Backbone:
C-alpha cells in the first residue's frame, strides 16, 4: 500500500487542515502554505483553528481564510429578533432547476426583513483531517466532533503527538528546524508546484520558527529549502514594512523634516549674540 503524503492527499475527497489552540507563527505559516498548495491543485480544502488569529499573523498570505468555527456541511438560515410564532409554515419549490425557499408568516403579520436573516453553516464535511503541530490531542478540540469520527487523520509536526488515543493517526512527523520547513519538504517530495505566496509563507515561517536560523534543528537542508523558496518567488521583505513606509517622526530619535527645517530657520534672540557683561552688586 502506498503510504506517501501525496497518496494520502490524492485519495481524499475533502480535506480539513486543523491548527492547534494558540498556534505559533510558524505553525500558522506552514498550515496556510499547505492550504494554498492544495487549493492550487483543485482539492476541496478548508482550514480552521480553535483560537482567533492575532495581529502578528496578518502578514501571512491567506490568513483571512482561517475560520474559528467549523461548519461547511449544512446551510442554516436563522431569523434573529423575529418571533418564531409569527411563522405559519415554510415551503420550497424548484423552478427551472432553481431551488426556492418560502417563509410564510401568519395572517396580518409582516415577514422578516433582510436585516433579520442570517445565513451560515453547521456541521463538518471532511474525510481527511490534517493536524499541524501540537503536542497532544487536547490541542485539537474539534477531533471530538462526531462529524470527524470516521475521517482519516494525518499529523504533521517536528515531534509526534504524545500518547494519542485516536487510533489510526498517520504520522508524518520528522526532525526539522520548524513546521514550515517540514511542510515545505513534504510539498517538494509530493511534486506540488510552489507559487510565490506559498513560498513567502514558508520563508517567513522558517525564519521565525528557526529563530533566524539559530535553533538546534537547523541543518544544511534548512538553508537549501530557504534557497529553493527564494527561487520560487518567496518574498522575505514581507516580514516588516519598508522604512519609507513609516510616517515622519514615528521612528524614535528621528526629527520630522518639517520640524527640522523650522529649527534650522529659527534665529536666536539678538541679546544672545552680543557680548556678555556681568555686573556685581557688592564690593569686597
Residues:
Amino acid at each position: 500500500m502506498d503510504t506517501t503524503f501525496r497518496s494520502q492527499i490524492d485519495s481524499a475527497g475533502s480535506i480539513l487542515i486543523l491548527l492547534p489552540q494558540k498556534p505559533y507563527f510558524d505553525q500558522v505559516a506552514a498550515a496556510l502554505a499547505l492550504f494554498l498548495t492544495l487549493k492550487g491543485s483543485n482539492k476541496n480544502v478548508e482550514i480552521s483553528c480553535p483560537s482567533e488569529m492575532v495581529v502578528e499573523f496578518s502578514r501571512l498570505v491567506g490568513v483571512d481564510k482561517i475560520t474559528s468555527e467549523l461548519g461547511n456541511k449544512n446551510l442554516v438560515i436563522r431569523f434573529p429578533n423575529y418571533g418564531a410564532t409569527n411563522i405559519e409554515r415554510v415551503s420550497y419549490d424548484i423552478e427551472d432547476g432553481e431551488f426556492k425557499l418560502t417563509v410564510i408568516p401568519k395572517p396580518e403579520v409582516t415577514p422578516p426583513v433582510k436585516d433579520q436573516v442570517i445565513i451560515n453553516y453547521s456541521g463538518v464535511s471532511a474525510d481527511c483531517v490534517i493536524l499541524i503541530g501540537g503536542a497532544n490531542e487536547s490541542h485539537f478540540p474539534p477531533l471530538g466532533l462526531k462529524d470527524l469520527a470516521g475521517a482519516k487523520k494525518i499529523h504533521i509536526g517536528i515531534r509526534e503527538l504524545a500518547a494519542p488515543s485516536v487510533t489510526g493517526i498517520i504520522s508524518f512527523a520528522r526532525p526539522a528546524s520548524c513546521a514550515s520547513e517540514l511542510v515545505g519538504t513534504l510539498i517538494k517530495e509530493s511534486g506540488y508546484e510552489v507559487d510565490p505566496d506559498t513560498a513567502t509563507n514558508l520563508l517567513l515561517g522558517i525564519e521565525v520558527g528557526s529563530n533566524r536560523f539559530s535553533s538546534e534543528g537547523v541543518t544544511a537542508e534548512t538553508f537549501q529549502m530557504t534557497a529553493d523558496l527564494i527561487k520560487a518567488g518567496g518574498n522575505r521583505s514581507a516580514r516588516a514594512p519598508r522604512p519609507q513606509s513609516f510616517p515622519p517622526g514615528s521612528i524614535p530619535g528621528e526629527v520630522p523634516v518639517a520640524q527640522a527645517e523650522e529649527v534650522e530657520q529659527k534665529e536666536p534672540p539678538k541679546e544672545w549674540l552680543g557680548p556678555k557683561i556681568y555686573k556685581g552688586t557688592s564690593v569686597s
Summary: Confidence is low (pLDDT under 50) at residues 240-265.
